[in-house]
Specification:
Length: 412
């Protein structure tokens, strides 16, 4: 069994709302001590505290690549700051064994008045590297960052993207045993983001530990075997990447798309549940992406006979984009309880959560429609673009091959 390099037990972090931490000179401390007996009680406004993290416990083993996911303000960055020793926990403890390289904010450990070259040495020293070690890696760091031309320019003249390039390059190339990366990769261009992900994959293959925060689920799926879902300052779920990401996406989809059970006419038809028809065990609302047929069982109750009706089904992704829709005419339904089966020859969709909307039109034109809850979860490995916004909705494998050919030139 591998060794735990990060151990967090009962950890919490509390902040005082609306007040900055002040720094006092010695005379200020003496003055406050002397005047304390003469102050009246009750003059200060009651303190308002916020727990950014509370009762957080987990272990990370050496060589693990762990993703941190959660909504904005859930406590992910606070957790990384504690692991980086930038701030201290209010309760509990966090043990970190090994040299840590952290990239939490653009330009962390840099000085704006120093040149890019000088900041490489400064940042490396902050990370605990010796000058000889920095010298050995210097050319590789600069080449990866792509800022060679501006290396002797003061950092304050660098764009945000250039600073991020240099900061990530330093943190990744100086061989930290533990690499902590926040959502700073969103600053860079697509090509550099791809380089960063490739570099982190190389780091992980070398047996080093990575804790990676991102809102890009394709990136998390590609890089991480394990995921921690942080919600309102607590660990809501911890486990293998796919089921945790699926639960997170399902929760996010449910929060933005309220379950509907509506009818434009009398309540003569109603929905009583749905599930995936499974050959093997698993969650009732999840399927594996691929080429196999998928069948969904929808249970409905009907009070009045439908002879000339219509049924429709639509699938929407988490952004509300229509993936596909179907219409079935001459739909008939006798009074009583029924199971309606929707069978798809395949669902080659990108892993994630999807809303399925099913509706029935009766003989009088009345529409009865429902958003099936919980959402449909597509499990699997994303094989499309690593950026969610460019990945589309289909998960279609594609290979690339380049062949050199010779052109013959002929005179006219």
């Amino acid at each position: 069994m591998s060794e735990a390099v990060i151990k967090v037990e009962g950890m919490g972090k509390r902040y005082r709302v609306g007040e900055r931490e002040r720094y006092y000179a010695l005379r200020d401390v003496l003055t406050r001590a002397l005047t304390a007996p003469f102050r009246r009680n009750g003059q200060r406004r009651p303190a308002d505290y916020l727990w950014a993290l509370r009762d957080v416990s987990f272990d990370i083993q050496q060589g693990e690549v762990v993703g941190l996911i959660g909504r904005n303000g859930s406590g992910k960055t606070t957790l990384l700051k504690i692991l980086s020793r930038i701030t201290r926990p209010t309760a509990g403890f966090a043990e970190v064994h090994g040299r840590v390289g952290s990239l939490l904010e653009v330009g962390t450990g840099f000085h704006p008045e120093l040149t890019g070259r000088e900041n490489v040495y400064l940042s490396g020293a902050v990370l605990g590297m010796r000058k000889a070690e920095i010298n050995r890696k210097f050319d590789e760091i600069v080449a990866f960052s792509g800022v060679e031309r501006f290396l002797d320019t003061a950092l304050k003249h660098f764009s945000t993207g250039m600073q991020m390039r240099l900061a990530f390059s330093v943190a990744a190339h100086l061989e930290p045993e533990i690499l902590l990366v926040d959502e700073v990769l969103a600053v860079g261009d697509l090509e550099f983001q791809k380089k960063c992900l490739g570099k982190m994959e190389d780091v992980s293959k070398g047996g080093r530990t990575i804790v990676f925060v991102s809102h890009q689920m394709n990136q998390i799926r590609r890089l991480c075997q394990r995921v921690l879902w942080i919600d309102a300052g607590q660990v809501r779920r911890d486990g293998p990447a796919e089921p945790v990401i699926g639960a997170y996406e399902q929760s996010s989809l449910a929060a933005t798309h309220t379950e509907r059970r509506e009818s434009s006419s009398h309540e003569s038809v109603w929905f009583s549940g749905w599930e995936v028809v499974r050959r093997r065990g698993g969650e009732s609302n999840s399927v594996s992406e691929g080429s196999e047929p998928v069948s969904i069982r929808v249970r409905v109750c009907n009070q009045q006979s439908i002879q000339r009706g219509k049924a429709t089904a639509f699938i929407y992704d988490g952004r509300g984009v229509l993936v596909s829709g179907w219409s079935f005419d001459s739909f008939q339904l006798s009074p009583g309880n029924h199971e309606v089966f929707l069978t798809f020859s395949n669902l080659p969709l990108r892993p994630g959560a999807y809303n399925v909307i099913f509706s029935i039109y009766d003989d009088h034109g009345g529409q009865h429609y429902w958003t099936l809850a919980p959402p449909l979860i597509i499990e699997g490995t994303a094989v499309t673009h690593f950026m969610d916004e460019w990945a589309g909705v289909l998960n279609i494998p594609c290979s690339l091959e380049c062949r050199q050919i010779e052109f013959s030139t002929r005179g006219n």
